[in-house]
Amino acid sequence: MDRARKWLPPMSALNSFDAAATHGSFSRAGVEVGLTQSAVSRQIALLEDWLQTPLFDRVGRRVQLNEAGQAYAEEIRPALDRIRRATRRVAARRAQGALRIATLPSFGMRWLAPRLPGLSALHPDLVVDFASRSDPFDFAQEEFDAAIHYGLPEEWPGVAQDYLFREQMVPVCAPDWLAANGLRSPADLLGKPLLSQSSRRDAWARWFAAAGVEAGPLPPGPAFEHFLMLAQAVVAGAGVALIPSFLIRPELEAGSLVIPFDRPLSSEQAYYLVYPTGLGGHPGLARFRAWMLASAGAE
């Protein structure tokens, strides 16, 4: 037996063991894996012989994991789940170019969605499914080919990253709110309701510092997980907020939001297209990447 196979039991035995460990029954495990009860029993016996240790205690008609079996099940189940997800992801692709992309919700709604007709016109055969994710994740645990990330490159280690663009956050409020509060300088915002996006709670402190205002400790104000929720609260007159200008162009053009002070805030953080290392050669992802980079370059 070569080294590669020495520590890798047959997949059929592992699958039967996982099902039996889940159900506590060889017969119910057989229903799940498509084998008879006796066939499952033989697979378990094969695995126990391979490992040279019993994995179950037989209690009447039922089986129960013993200590070794419980420890083994906990170790192999995540690996089996990863194999299942990877297989399902490949099998579910309707074409070689099909992709599944995770995107930040507001970015997907206000930047990606309006540009998708251009992607479809350029690559009519490219099938792309989008889903929202706000935080970095393990590509081995999620069924995505790529994702949109905002932050610093080191915040999502172990992946390939393509820089897209930086954002400019601008202070915005409703026109009626501005008229009622009579702002003349950035310092006039001190003491006003300062709304935030939940992952950018330090934005107001940085904005005041950049504007040369000694703000001191700022009292915590309302925070929203998504920028578009934040924008709607500001439109309703809840206060003033710092929001990336590209996300609120419709509101700015319609006049439902206005910029009281033309002092945009930038940072070293940026938007990136991230994907597993080694997947860059995927033909569908290569086309999507080229389109994303060209579209971001025009931003």
From TrEMBL:
InterPro entries: LysR-type_TF_proteobact-type (IPR058163), LysR_HTH_N (IPR000847), LysR_subst-bd (IPR005119), WH-like_DNA-bd_sf (IPR036388), WH_DNA-bd_sf (IPR036390)
Superkingdom per UniProt: Bacteria
Gene Ontology biological process terms in this record: DNA-templated transcription
Entries under PROSITE patterns matching the protein: HTH_LYSR
One Gene Ontology term of the molecular function aspect: sequence-specific DNA binding
Domain named HTH lysR-type: residues: 9-66
Designated name of the protein: HTH lysR-type domain-containing protein
Organism: Sphingobium yanoikuyae ATCC 51230
Lineage: Bacteria, Pseudomonadati, Pseudomonadota, Alphaproteobacteria, Sphingomonadales
